[in-house]
């Protein structure tokens, strides 16, 4: 499951679920600020990020940054909220095993390559130092897990999962061992590890672990 935080000069595409975004210059300004925040977090980490850095790299005057975002915490929080305003949907491969493996491999794609992982890893580190960033990270992933509802619904319809299977719990279970390796034990992850995590969750789903008691 991706934490999509690559740098870009454009705002995310329109039409994402449950969001309304400003257009035109406002959206471009917000995207430029988001990019500068990402670059600063990667370069200096949360403790070294300053409003002055964001102003210099975004082209937005620091007075405007203070007025609109309030300071570094507000900038980081909004950058993460902005990342959640995309059109991501869970994989739809035609089978629950395929969906779970694809979901797990998204984590590998997002974090397995150090170059790709730099920005999302910096945001996760910021969440340990800023309560507002932690809240934003919680919102980001809670919303991501909520979007996984069709994954379980399709599996139930195909007879691959018991009725009432909790899609959020399934998505969390797929991601958990990968994030453990990434951020706790500092072990590498790859496609084989992703498939192993997905297949373990698949077995648990079939056993009814994520469904209400009969």
From TrEMBL:
Keyword Transcription included in the entry's annotation: yes
Compositionally skewed regions (Polar residues) per UniProt: 1-16
DNA-binding residue intervals: 50-69
UniProt-recorded Gene Ontology molecular function terms: DNA-binding transcription factor activity; transcription cis-regulatory region binding
Segments forming domain HTH tetR-type: 27-87
SUPFAM superfamilies: Homeodomain-like (SSF46689), Tetracyclin repressor-like, C-terminal domain (SSF48498)
Transmembrane segment boundaries: none
Entry-linked PROSITE patterns: HTH_TETR_2
Origin: domain of life: Bacteria
Stretches the record annotates as Disordered: 1-27
Keyword annotations from UniProtKB, A to Z: DNA-binding, Transcription, Transcription regulation
Biased composition regions of type Low complexity, renumbered to the chain: 17-27
Name recorded for this polypeptide: TetR family transcriptional regulator
